[in-house]
Write a structure and sequence with these properties.
Strand order of the largest sheet: 1-2
Number of helices: 6
Radius of gyration: 21 Å
Largest sheet: 2 strands, parallel
Order of helices and strands: HHEHEHHH
Protein backbone atom coordinates (compact mmCIF):
# COMPACT_ATOMS: atom_id res chain seq x y z
CA UNK A 1 0.00 0.00 0.00
CA UNK A 2 1.44 3.38 -1.00
CA UNK A 3 1.74 6.45 1.21
CA UNK A 4 -1.26 8.11 -0.43
CA UNK A 5 -3.41 5.04 0.24
CA UNK A 6 -2.24 4.97 3.87
CA UNK A 7 -2.97 8.68 4.22
CA UNK A 8 -6.49 8.21 2.86
CA UNK A 9 -7.14 5.25 5.16
CA UNK A 10 -5.90 7.23 8.16
CA UNK A 11 -8.05 10.16 7.11
CA UNK A 12 -11.14 7.95 6.79
CA UNK A 13 -10.45 6.26 10.14
CA UNK A 14 -9.97 9.57 11.96
CA UNK A 15 -13.10 11.05 10.38
CA UNK A 16 -15.13 8.00 11.42
CA UNK A 17 -13.80 8.23 14.98
CA UNK A 18 -14.56 11.96 15.19
CA UNK A 19 -18.09 11.46 13.82
CA UNK A 20 -18.78 8.78 16.43
CA UNK A 21 -18.88 11.41 19.24
CA UNK A 22 -16.45 9.29 21.27
CA UNK A 23 -14.15 12.29 21.70
CA UNK A 24 -16.74 14.09 23.82
CA UNK A 25 -16.05 17.21 21.76
CA UNK A 26 -19.13 18.67 20.09
CA UNK A 27 -16.94 20.82 17.84
CA UNK A 28 -14.96 17.82 16.55
CA UNK A 29 -18.14 15.89 15.88
CA UNK A 30 -19.76 18.80 14.03
CA UNK A 31 -16.82 19.67 11.75
CA UNK A 32 -16.18 16.01 10.95
CA UNK A 33 -19.71 15.57 9.66
CA UNK A 34 -18.82 17.49 6.49
CA UNK A 35 -18.02 15.33 3.50
CA UNK A 36 -15.37 15.08 2.37
CA UNK A 37 -13.48 15.92 5.54
CA UNK A 38 -10.31 17.71 4.51
CA UNK A 39 -7.43 16.95 6.88
CA UNK A 40 -3.71 17.58 6.89
CA UNK A 41 -1.25 16.06 9.34
CA UNK A 42 1.89 17.39 10.95
CA UNK A 43 4.07 14.90 12.77
CA UNK A 44 7.06 16.46 14.53
CA UNK A 45 9.70 13.74 14.28
CA UNK A 46 12.17 15.06 16.83
CA UNK A 47 11.43 15.25 20.52
CA UNK A 48 12.15 19.00 20.42
CA UNK A 49 8.88 20.79 19.70
CA UNK A 50 9.18 23.64 17.20
CA UNK A 51 6.31 25.93 18.24
CA UNK A 52 6.78 28.24 15.24
CA UNK A 53 6.63 25.32 12.78
CA UNK A 54 3.46 23.97 14.39
CA UNK A 55 1.85 27.43 14.40
CA UNK A 56 2.78 27.87 10.72
CA UNK A 57 1.25 24.49 9.87
CA UNK A 58 -1.98 25.32 11.69
CA UNK A 59 -2.21 28.78 10.11
CA UNK A 60 -1.59 27.30 6.65
CA UNK A 61 -4.32 24.69 7.03
CA UNK A 62 -6.73 27.35 8.29
CA UNK A 63 -6.02 29.50 5.24
CA UNK A 64 -6.85 26.52 3.01
CA UNK A 65 -9.93 25.59 5.10
CA UNK A 66 -8.39 22.25 6.03
CA UNK A 67 -8.51 20.67 9.49
CA UNK A 68 -5.08 20.53 11.13
CA UNK A 69 -4.08 17.38 13.00
CA UNK A 70 -0.81 17.44 14.92
CA UNK A 71 0.49 14.05 16.03
CA UNK A 72 3.27 13.60 18.58
CA UNK A 73 4.65 10.07 18.13
CA UNK A 74 7.27 10.58 20.83
CA UNK A 75 4.55 10.89 23.49
CA UNK A 76 4.39 7.47 25.11
CA UNK A 77 3.95 8.07 28.84
CA UNK A 78 2.01 10.48 31.08
CA UNK A 79 5.32 12.26 31.74
CA UNK A 80 5.87 12.68 27.97
CA UNK A 81 2.37 14.10 27.63
CA UNK A 82 2.89 16.51 30.52
CA UNK A 83 6.19 17.69 29.02
CA UNK A 84 4.55 18.22 25.61
CA UNK A 85 1.65 20.18 27.09
CA UNK A 86 3.96 22.39 29.16
CA UNK A 87 6.11 23.06 26.09
CA UNK A 88 3.08 23.93 23.96
CA UNK A 89 1.75 26.26 26.67
CA UNK A 90 4.91 28.36 26.20
CA UNK A 91 3.18 29.86 23.14
CA UNK A 92 0.28 32.29 23.81
CA UNK A 93 -1.99 30.46 21.34
CA UNK A 94 -1.95 27.34 23.55
CA UNK A 95 -3.51 27.32 27.01
CA UNK A 96 -3.57 24.85 29.85
CA UNK A 97 -6.52 24.86 32.19
CA UNK A 98 -8.28 22.69 34.69
CA UNK A 99 -11.17 20.79 33.16
CA UNK A 100 -14.26 19.59 34.95
CA UNK A 101 -15.13 16.08 33.80
CA UNK A 102 -18.21 14.08 34.59
CA UNK A 103 -17.50 10.69 36.07
CA UNK A 104 -18.70 7.72 34.03
CA UNK A 105 -22.40 7.04 34.38
CA UNK A 106 -24.84 5.21 34.47
CA UNK A 107 -24.68 4.62 38.15
CA UNK A 108 -23.47 1.25 39.29
CA UNK A 109 -25.66 0.77 42.34
CA UNK A 110 -28.02 3.71 42.34
CA UNK A 111 -27.19 4.77 45.90
CA UNK A 112 -28.12 8.29 46.97
CA UNK A 113 -24.42 9.26 47.25
CA UNK A 114 -23.87 8.48 43.56
CA UNK A 115 -26.91 10.50 42.50
CA UNK A 116 -25.63 13.32 44.71
CA UNK A 117 -22.22 13.17 43.01
CA UNK A 118 -23.90 13.32 39.60
CA UNK A 119 -25.98 16.30 40.71
CA UNK A 120 -22.85 18.07 41.96
CA UNK A 121 -21.00 17.41 38.69
CA UNK A 122 -23.91 18.68 36.58
CA UNK A 123 -24.16 21.83 38.70
CA UNK A 124 -20.42 22.45 38.17
CA UNK A 125 -20.86 22.10 34.41
CA UNK A 126 -23.72 24.62 34.53
CA UNK A 127 -21.76 27.02 36.74
CA UNK A 128 -18.29 26.84 35.21
CA UNK A 129 -18.77 25.61 31.64
CA UNK A 130 -22.17 26.96 30.55
CA UNK A 131 -20.55 29.19 27.91
CA UNK A 132 -19.17 26.06 26.19
CA UNK A 133 -22.59 24.42 25.85
CA UNK A 134 -24.17 24.78 22.42
CA UNK A 135 -27.63 24.58 20.93
CA UNK A 136 -30.08 22.91 23.29
CA UNK A 137 -27.38 21.65 25.67
CA UNK A 138 -27.91 24.37 28.35
CA UNK A 139 -31.59 23.43 28.59
CA UNK A 140 -30.70 19.71 28.70
CA UNK A 141 -28.28 20.31 31.58
CA UNK A 142 -30.94 22.32 33.43
CA UNK A 143 -33.47 19.51 32.88
CA UNK A 144 -30.99 16.89 34.09
CA UNK A 145 -30.22 18.92 37.21
CA UNK A 146 -33.93 19.27 37.97
CA UNK A 147 -34.58 15.53 37.44
CA UNK A 148 -31.53 14.30 39.36
CA UNK A 149 -32.33 16.71 42.23
CA UNK A 150 -35.82 15.23 42.36
CA UNK A 151 -34.33 11.70 42.60
CA UNK A 152 -31.94 12.76 45.37
CA UNK A 153 -34.77 14.41 47.35
CA UNK A 154 -36.96 11.33 46.89
CA UNK A 155 -34.21 8.93 48.02
CA UNK A 156 -33.32 11.10 51.01
CA UNK A 157 -36.99 11.22 51.98
CA UNK A 158 -37.25 7.43 51.68
CA UNK A 159 -34.15 6.80 53.83
Amino acid sequence: MGDLDRFRRCQEHLALWLRSSLTGCHFATSFSSTKPLKLDYCTPISEAIDLAAIAGFIDGTATNEVVAVVLFPSVRTPADLAHTLVTLSGDPRWQLGEEIWLAPWPLSSGLTDEWGALLDALEKVRSFRRQELVGGEPAMVDDLIRDVARIVRHRLGAA
